[in-house]
Amino acid sequence: MSQSKTDPRVVRTRKLIMEAFVDLSSKKEFKDITVKDITTEAMINRATFYYHFEDIYDLLEKALSEVLLINLDCHNFEENGINGDSIVLIFKAITNFQKTLSNRCHRGYEDTIARIIREQLEVIFYKMLLKQNTEEENEALKIAAVMLSWGIYGASVEWRRNSREILPDEFIKSAIPYMMTGIKFSKLG
Amino acid sequence: MSQSKTDPRVVRTRKLIMEAFVDLSSKKEFKDITVKDITTEAMINRATFYYHFEDIYDLLEKALSEVLLINLDCHNFEENGINGDSIVLIFKAITNFQKTLSNRCHRGYEDTIARIIREQLEVIFYKMLLKQNTEEENEALKIAAVMLSWGIYGASVEWRRNSREILPDEFIKSAIPYMMTGIKFSKLG
DNA sequence: CCCGAATCGTTGTATTTCCAACACATTGTA
DNA sequence: TACAATGTGTTGGAAATACAACGATTCGGG
């Protein structure tokens, strides 16, 4: 919360690196992108890259997380609780995010990307659960968040596998009633 | 020539400041633009501004000089010597530059702008004269450059005053024959 | 197999940029 | 007039970035 505002220089530099990376991703596969490519494109020193990121995989994680968060537009959800509408919006955000990813080439890193998506979802669901559950059931809420994130992600896998002719909205809506009873149940637990 | 390449940080920062200034110029008059405005817009620290520029007037000079130089696209001219074609191109560049300026508000600084234009022209003409005169008549060439810069600038003033219905091309072309004899003469001098 | 070129990740030092504070000038306003 | 608010130009010290160099690793070609 009260983190003293970050130095404008790091904001600039991170932005430059991220943009360079996203830019390169649309031209090359991930495996062909070098740190040198990125720093050259971003017009920053290579040593500076390592000041901000452990390595290129660290950058991949953070870049994808950020893009995903922008897709999710989380401020909306964190305020309100979990309900049918928010589930639909989140599901649409994920399928949309994966569509933008398909334009880039991250072959061989599907598992990494899947993990990143689930982790982000988990954080968001946890915050939402905290909002609507004042009591101190933190551990239970964490587990619930994990399950929700895996569930939603799994739904997106299923949708891509053999239901792409159905709109994401329709697809997830059909399952929501059953999801919601599950949520209610976990709340009572 | 051999100036050891400048630190990428200063390139970035100067660019940010210039862009912020050009941006603000299209919204406010120059007299209403503060250093704080610029540094805020450019997202750099105010102290950093003074690391690069003496004050806002210094920025005005350098920004205008740069925009003018871009308009002039000088690399073309410096290679070749002075001739009818280069005169026409330079004249068109000046009138064009002044047209872009008229969209911004620099009221009360017309004299400053005029001086900047003449100074830039003088530098360019001097380089061109050096190219086509190998002998060591540097002082004479400098004077010639001064005269040419004033002359061309004066022509642009005259054009704006009561010949705007004529295209800049036509306007300057009509005078070129007489200009060129003047140049030939100074070369013989 | 070895070699050379390129990238990686790290380090020490120089330079740039940030930040907070200062005295001073200007401006609006009570 | 006084006085609050805002901008100017400067300073010293902290933090971020640049740069050059290093050994280690990877990879493709001879």
Keyphrases for this structure?
DNA-binding; 189 residues; homodimer
Structure description:
Two copies of one chain form a homodimer. The first copy, chain A, has 189 residues and is mostly helical. Chain A has two domains: 8-53, Arc Repressor Mutant, subunit A (Orthogonal Bundle), CATH 1.10.10; 61-188. In chain A, 76% of the residues lie in helices and 0% in strands. The first copy, chain A, contains nine helices and no strands. Chain A has helices spanning 8-25, 35-42, 46-52, 56-72, 75-79, 84-103, 110-132, 138-162, 168-188. In chain A, helix 4 (56-72) crosses helix 7, helix 6 (84-103) crosses helix 8 (138-162) and helix 8 (138-162) runs antiparallel to helix 9. Chain A starts with 7 loop residues before the first helix and ends with a helix. The model of chain A has no long low-confidence stretch (mean pLDDT 86). Chain A binds chain B through residues 8, 12, 43-45, and chain B through 8, 11-12, 43-45.
First and last CA, distance of chain A = 30 Å
As for the number of domains of chain A, it is 2
What is the CA-atom radius of gyration of chain A, in angstroms?
Answer: 19 Å
Q: Specify the helix fraction band of chain A.
A: over 70%
> How would you characterize the largest beta sheet of chain A?
none
Biggest interface, chains and residues, is:
A-B, 5 and 6 residues
Topology:
Two copies of one chain form a homodimer.
Chain A: H1 8-25, H2 35-42, H3 46-52, H4 56-72, H5 75-79, H6 84-103, H7 110-132, H8 138-162, H9 168-188
Helix pairs in contact in A: 1-2, 4-6, 4-7, 6-8, 6-9, 7-8, 8-9
Chain B binds a DNA duplex (30 and 30 nucleotides) through α1 and α3.
